[in-house]
Design a protein that fits this description.
With 343 residues, this protein is an alpha/beta fold. 21% of the residues lie in helices and 27% in strands. It contains 8 helices and 17 strands. The strands form 3 sheets. It has a 9-stranded mixed β-sheet, with helices on one face. It has a 6-stranded antiparallel β-sheet with strand order 5-6-7-10-9-8, with helices on one face. Helix 7 packs across helix 8. It catalyses: 7-aminomethyl-7-carbaguanosine(34) in tRNA + S-adenosyl-L-methionine = epoxyqueuosine(34) in tRNA + adenine + L-methionine + 2 H(+).
Length: 343
Amino acid sequence: MNVDLFDFELPTDRIALRPASPRDSARLLVLDGAETRDAIIRDLAQQLRPGDCLVFNDTRVIPAQLEGTRGEARIGATLHKREGPRRWRAFIRNAKRLRDGDAIDFGPNAVAIASDRADDGSFALDFQGDEPVELLLERCGRMPLPPYIASKRPTDERDAEDYQTMFAAEPGAVAAPTAALHFTPELMASLEAAGIGHTTLTLHVGAGTFLPVKAEDTEDHKMHAEWGRITPEVADRLNAVRAAGNRIVAVGTTSLRLLESAANADRVIEPFEGDTAIFITPGYRFKGVDGLVTNFHLPRSTLFMLVSALMGLDRMQAAYAHAIETGYRFYSYGDSSLLLPAR
């Protein structure tokens, strides 16, 4: 499909620079079949049915942005996928000053050797020494805010908390599963009281999620692989939800993409552990989910393509026009939507 089909005018002031406070006060646009409703995320239980099951991503964002030097040259690195105990694949700023075998000094006792430059310009970084890389990043790294936020303000101490979900448990992501940022213990209690269940999976979100689609046709866009896991216990529970006639609702496109990667042609979710590079565009037949909670995405992005596949392109263009006109806030720290396609 032509990527221009997924374009729309988004005023820059609609991109949120801070999350709603409290988190569950964010607005919620509900697309329920052909019906459209304006709501608040703390009232999510009223928009779902008893027996529905929400699926959260329990990945934890690591401070994956590093600033260093190679000789006199300043080098920036954004880690995006672990390739070994001490090796990470990284996008590099000022990559023209870097060659295979060069050492980058990221700070006290934080040196990495660059190698294996890929076609997308990324390098493998092998961190030297025996200190756990996680401790090195806590000391030298910073939270990797999306470029649409980071270009407008610096990362600060608030982001260390704001950019983690309440489910964050498994370190490894370099971007937050932002749909879950709206959830609070109070909201979860209201969902439980309404008979709405939840479970978790793990998908370590990579920096490739921020990359623009530069191709003119979706067929020519390549997704970066991300590692994920669905345990047998979680797969069994979700299949039982479906068997009882209830719905699986992914919280975030990361949860949705992993569920779709794990679902077979009979709509059975199988245990999964490994990489996925699934790219969902209109025409895709969904097998793993019956609905989605997600934030508002940017024009021409793979994520707007995904929600258009779920609800229909015309439906999403109209919904986004309504969201822009009525002041919804977009992107990682923005408002939320609940997408429930007609069955």
